[in-house]
Amino acid sequence: xxxxxxxxxTLDVKGESCPMPVVKTKGAIDGLSDDEVLEVIATDSGSxxxxxxxxxATSGVELLDQQDEGxxxxxxxxxxx
Amino acid sequence: MSTDTSDSPETADGSEAKSPIxxxxxxxxxxxxxxxxxxxxxxEELAELQAxxxxxxxxxxxxxxxGTLDMAYPPLILASTAAAFGWDVTVFHTFWGLDILHxxxxxxLKLSAVGNPSMPMPNAxxxxxxxxxxxxxxxxxxxxxxxxxxxxxxxEVSLDQGVDLQACQMxxxxxxxxxxDFHDGVTTGVGAATALQRMADADVQLLV
Lengths: 81, 208
Hints:
The complex is a heterodimer of chains A (81) and B (208). With 81 residues, chain A is α+β, with helices and mostly antiparallel strands.
């Protein structure tokens, strides 16, 4: 699931747990322009499933990549449309 | 039974039967151009209908009836997450659920030590004075340590994202609360009919 992209903005939600990583990701995506990419850095292990599920069910966003680095989980979401 | 049914559409005589189209509206001298125009008009209508039906805007209504710390979380977590999905969300608070929206009470929601089999103490001890406060303190410490959002924070993000947090008017009066006791942005002056009307149109309806 690796594509070429440039990160526009980074959202740090380390230490925060459900539902904040998803809620704040949505808020940050709203502030981006089309085709820009948001990097989300979380420590909540549930964010792997939650952000993927959110991106799947939400129009106007595309999940580009997710990385499990053990203690940190990184998510890359592109704003579409 | 003297009625002559020979030229009714229901006649058994196939050659005489009118097609359903004739029965509705289609004079024989209609031209191809007129038919084409009518087809075009129908296509436009169909496209409009499909657009209306295909609208994937989902909505959810949660009825929140409990005011303990543990029962305050699920409705607010689901509401704020659904709003992040772009759903149209209403949470209708009634009875002790009102305390979640109450500016003062929402800061001090309690956990009950009694009747909770998950508590590491028997009910005989849990019912002693001060045990609810102790259980609540322990839970609040866990919430802080885990980085779990507070009830205040969840109310704030929910309202920011356009969740309609409603306080049932009948129970506001019943519990002797004042409409100004609630967080800014909370909808008051609503009742069961408002909740039902939204539930009838919603994709997800939950009672907590």
